[in-house]
Design goal:
This protein is about 65% helix and about 0% strand. It is mainly alpha-helical. It is globular. Belongs to the TTC38 family.
Length: about 475
């Protein structure tokens, strides 16, 4: 039996009442070297700003005093334009497959190839990061993750490798790999280190996604004991309440801790999504829509990330599946997704895009999406990881969504039922992928076939989630 980490006693020294924790100083070149993570740059300023950039990613919030993660990364490259790890971070921003657009791919690959050539004079760890960047640009996500895991074997305290591997596991639905990766890394950190609480938050989520709820809650509560402002740990705790149907407790938890996590701008919109989801499960749709209007959508307008667009689509779609009107809210969500209708970079995005196009009843965008996906599947992108996922899962799933919208409920069931155990491959969490099981159940209940209505009673919900 695979167990979670053996958690140390609570660390009182790091207890911080509602204030963001960060290192007392940023690491210069010598500090990086002493930690076993040497940099090829000789600029202490670049080294320090690199540390500050990574810290903002680890803590899931931009620090305005530093100019945010983007501004801090600019400071890295101003101090040393040839800082390899700074260029790695810049290229990863360009090559993030959940946010990039298809026309960017040739330029991104060229930039990644140029970086890899430049890195011949860098150290081993930096060179491997550059290899991973090229894999990402080529759409070979699993290959990139394998490189990051190889880095972590030799350099387990490499924050960037850890975060990139962790993100890949989320975006490919690989819960077991995510759990094992965080379990391997935790023992290399002292519980008195400030980073430890954030790592516990990641581990909490990993354990929850593997159904290890008791172990996950222990890790999550300790992470929040160390630092109550840990937005990711808050999010992981929300997952635990969600998966165990502790709805009232979830609402109380989110409401009582809001002031702690609302400034975690990387994740705050998603924490609000979880809060709204608890209300949906209680049939409190107006409360859920209030959170959408007052919190989720305003953050999405400001952030303009595909992650925030996903939350908008997912919440409105669930409310409508349960037979409720969301008014004219789909219009802006559809507008947010529209520039990406031909991308087909990340299947999870595609599914949430289709929700918006159907919700807004934008037949032109829907048709554009369908035709471009057919072109993508028949084109020369088969080397991309997403291509097989799109062919096997995303295409039938989006077709099932269209059938449901058109009132073809039996057709929706017939399309979706055979791929129900493959839905995890589109990525995201169990809670995020529940829309597919909800779609199947609602279509089965509305179908004119008796066998489908019987199916609605007997869909093995937990196995649907845990493939």
């Amino acid at each position: 039996m695979v167990r979670g980490p053996v958690l140390p006693p609570k660390v009182e020294i790091l207890r911080n009442e509602g204030k963001m924790l960060q290192p007392l100083s940023w690491k210069d070149c010598k500090a990086w070297y002493d930690e076993g993570l040497p940099l090829s740059t000789t600029s202490d300023e670049a080294a320090k700003m690199l540390h500050a950039t990574l810290w903002q990613h680890l803590s899931f919030r931009n620090d305005p005093a530093l100019g945010g993660a983007e501004g801090t990364l600019e400071a890295v490259l101003e101090a040393d334009p040839n800082c390899v790890m700074g260029l790695v971070l810049k290229n990863l921003g360009m090559n993030n497959f959940s946010s990039k657009q298809r026309p960017q791919i040739p330029r991104n690959i060229a930039e990644a190839e140029k970086l890899l050539e430049m890195a011949c004079n860098a150290n081993e760890r930096e060179y491997m990061h550059c290899k991973a960047v090229l894999c990402m640009a080529q759409g070979k996500m699993s290959e990139a993750c394998n490189v990051w895991e190889r880095i972590l074997i030799k350099y387990p305290r490499d924050t960037l490798a850890m975060l990139q591997a962790f993100t890949h596991y989320i975006q490919s639905g690989k819960s077991t790999e995510m759990r094992d990766s965080t379990n391997r890394i935790l023992p290399h950190y002292d519980p008195r280190e400030i980073s430890y609480g954030f790592l516990l938050g990641l581990n909490c989520f990993s354990l929850e996604e593997c159904g290890m709820y008791a172990e996950a809650e222990l890790a999550g509560r300790q992470a929040l004991h160390i630092n109550p402002t840990n937005g990711w740990a808050t999010h992981a705790m929300a997952h635990i309440f969600e998966m165990q149907c502790r709805t009232d407790e979830g609402i109380q938890f989110m409401e009582s801790t809001e002031n702690n996590w609302k400034d975690s701008d990387y994740i705050a919109h998603h924490d609000y999504w979880h809060w709204a989801l608890f209300h949906v499960e209680k049939g409190q749709y107006e409360e859920a829509l209030g959170i959408f209007d007052e919190k989720i959508q305003p953050i999405a307008r400001q952030r303009e990330t595909t992650f925030s667009f996903q939350d908008m689509s997912a919440l409105l779609y669930r409310i409508e599946l349960e037979g409720n009107s969301v008014g004219d809210r789909w219009g802006e969500v559809c507008k947010s997704w529209s520039p990406r209708s031909k991308d087909h970079i990340y299947s999870f995005n595609d599914c949430h895009m289709m929700m918006a196009f159907l919700g807004a009843d934008d037949k032109e965008k829907r048709q554009e999406f369908v035709e471009s996906m057919q072109e993508y599947l028949g084109g020369d992108s088969s080397a991309e990881d997403n291509h097989s996922i799109c062919s096997d899962v995303t295409w039938p799933l989006t077709q099932a969504m269209i059938a449901f919208k058109e009132g073809k409920f039996a057709e929706c069931v017939d399309i979706l039922y055979p791929v129900r155990y493959q839905v995890f491959r589109i990525g995201g969490s169990h809670a995020q992928r529940e829309f597919a099981s909800m779609l199947l159940i609602h279509a089965a209940m509305k179908s004119n076939l008796n066998e489908h209505r019987m199916l609605a009673k007997y869909v093995d919900y937990q196995h649907f989630l845990f493939y």
